[in-house]
Write a structure and sequence with these properties.
The N terminus is likely disordered. Helix 13 runs antiparallel to helix 14, helix 14 runs antiparallel to helix 15 and helix 19 packs antiparallel against helix 20. Helix content is 74%, strand content 1%. The chain contains 20 helices and two strands. It is an all-alpha fold and 409 residues long. It folds into four domains: 140 residues; 89 residues, Tetratricopeptide repeat domain (Serine Threonine Protein Phosphatase 5, Tetratricopeptide repeat); 50 residues, no CATH class; 88 residues, no CATH class. A hairpin with a 5-residue loop joins strand 1 and strand 2.
Length: 409
């Protein structure tokens, strides 16, 4: 049997440990004095092999080094800002996020048990002190990253700010939790950042957290309803809309519209009618309610009733662009239905129908679509397509040419 040298094994292990120590010592030395983020990024790239090396990747020091350096960079940039300089907001926000993320990797690796079974830590206390001491800076970082249009980074910074006091890795030395009103406002801003990043589920969750913390206002609920509708999250849409109706239903009919739209989407017309009729009984002078009745009637195929309700909404609110658009569409559909009856008529009878019935409907529809486009030209360009067909049917060459030119723009 080949002899095995125990002393040789210890020597080999010692050499490996020594090599690792040298690598980490060199890395720590290379980060000293770095004050700018681009230089910091370059140094991190240089030590990337340490993150995948089977030995160094398991050592807290590997992540403590870039983490501490990142916080130093942030502190330097923040000092520049206080002195009236204008450091890059994205670099400020990203530097503190980098520092936090590396420290979160270092903390679980720091406790080491020696041969006697005693657990020791080398970096934990300093890491916790640095993170806790920068608690408010994570809120600042969220603002910096919002200004830089880095909405994902903004969301992440606000998440750290909100959850740091309850982070189990920080234990009893975690920073004191801010007042619910402060966290509620932060959650609201976080929701807006997630919305801008098109992460609708995170936005909805942050809106809900803000509401639960008592941060509720008209703007928040309007945005929350809009995001829930965009995400097709019907449960949250109903929840947000009902909260809006409870708090602002007398002054803002949009919440009722969101609620009704959710019922219409699910073809729950009976509930939609009941909710809307109850609302009209309490406040019969809201044009949006009659517009919604028109939408429900149209969805159920009650076109005559829908037409009347759209017209009533216009009478109550003459600047209601969407009501004009829908009322005009109902007029066109009524025209087309009547026009189809002319297939079995003599030419003389059809000419009479056209002059006495069809033409007046088209003229009224033309005026309605013209008004719709005038009130909201950006969102109701489809009115121009209707007008083109109407003026063609009316043989109105001048208006047809005008509409064609508008469609080209």
């Amino acid at each position: 049997m080949k002899k095995i040298s125990i002393s040789g094994l210890f020597l080999a292990a010692a050499l490996v440990a020594s090599a690792q120590a040298d690598l980490l010592k060199q890395a720590e030395k290379s980060f000293k004095g770095i004050k700018e983020y681009p230089e910091y990024e370059a140094k991190v790239k240089e030590i990337e092999p340490l993150f995948t090396n089977p030995e160094t990747m398991k050592q807290a020091q590997t992540y403590y080094i870039p983490g501490k350096a990142a916080f130093d960079v942030y502190d330097n940039l923040y000092l520049k800002m206080q002195l009236g300089q204008k450091p890059d907001p994205k670099q400020m926000g990203q530097s503190i996020l980098d520092g936090y993320n590396y420290f979160m990797k270092a903390l679980p690796l720091d406790p080491v048990t020696d041969a006697k079974g005693k657990t020791k830590t080398k970096y934990t206390k300093n890491i916790i002190n640095i993170i806790s001491g920068h608690h408010n800076d994570f809120s600042n970082a969220g603002a910096f990253l919002w200004d830089a249009k880095d909405y994902k980074g903004c969301y992440d910074a606000f998440e750290i700010y909100c959850t740091l006091p309850s982070n189990p890795l920080l234990g009893k030395d975690a920073p004191k939790a801010p007042a619910d009103s402060v966290i509620g406002m932060t959650r609201y801003n976080q929701a807006l950042a997630a919305w801008q990043a098109n992460d609708l589920d995170k936005a909805i969750d942050a809106f809900s957290k803000a509401i639960n913390l008592g941060h509720v206002n008209n703007d928040l609920l309007n945005y929350a309803c809009s995001v829930a509708a965009q995400a097709k999250n019907n449960d949250k849409l109903v929840e947000f809309a009902q909260k809006g109706i409870e708090l602002y239903g007398d002054t803002n009919p949009n919440y009722m519209l969101y609620l009704l739209n959710s019922y219409v989407e699910n073809k729950d017309f009976a509930t939609a009618h009941k909710v809307l009729n109850d609302a009209i009984a309490k406040n019969p002078n809201v044009a949006e309610y009659y517009f919604s009745l028109g939408v429900i009637d149209e969805s159920e195929g009650n076109y005559e009733s829908a037409e009347k309700n759209y017209k009533k909404a216009i009478d109550m609110k003459p600047e209601y662009a969407a009501a004009y658009q829908n009322y005009g569409r109902m007029l066109v559909e009524r025209h087309d239905k009547i026009n189809a009856t002319g297939d079995n008529m003599s030419q003389a009878d059809y000419n009479k129908l056209r002059a006495e019935t069809l033409r007046p409907i088209l003229l009224e529809a033309a005026g309605v679509f013209e008004k719709a486009y005038e009130l909201d030209p950006e969102n109701l360009r489809d009115a121009l397509n209707y007008l083109r067909n109407i003026y063609y049917a009316l043989e109105d060459a001048a208006n047809l040419e005008r509409i064609e030119n508008l469609l080209k723009n």
